[in-house]
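Suppose a colleague, Dr. K., hands you the sequence of a protein chain of 165 amino acids and asks what its three-dimensional shape might be. Before reaching for any lab equipment, you can write down a predicted structure in token form. Begin with the sequence itself:
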Amino acid sequence: MNDRHQLTCPIADFLNMFGDPWTLLIMREAFYGATRFTEIQRNIGVARNLLSERLSRLVEEGILEREDVGVAGPRYAYHLTKKGQSLATVFIAMVQWSNEHLRKRGDETVHLIERKTGRKLKKVELLGSDGRKLKWNGIAALPGPGADEVARDRMEKAILAALAS
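The predicted structure, expressed as tokens, is then:
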């Protein structure tokens, strides 16, 4: 996790937190309900020191919370916080995209269903403020207050080019 992106960009920020495969696999386990260190380690095959480091960072960032569940000494369970649960849309989109583009139909390894009904989830889609389906070409990226001058110039040029076409 030493290769941190210095760009002022939400994608770079996300990659700084989740850009290593172990962290995403830990999050997968949290979404699937694994809570214990040994269970997570067994399910993803990560070295203990790496798992400990990644879990500590996720707790530090408020994405997971650590609960002492030990009877004879400290033993911890890890649970998604509200911040961690808010990643559900990202997680669902990754599973759905992978099933659609990296697996053959009928060879999906995971189907996400609604617990209450048992029905498959609808595909995550981009929706406009009025509920219309959008494609990426119907969206513009505008510089926010945290954008540096380079990012601001790049986005403004892209907007002007899109308006001219």
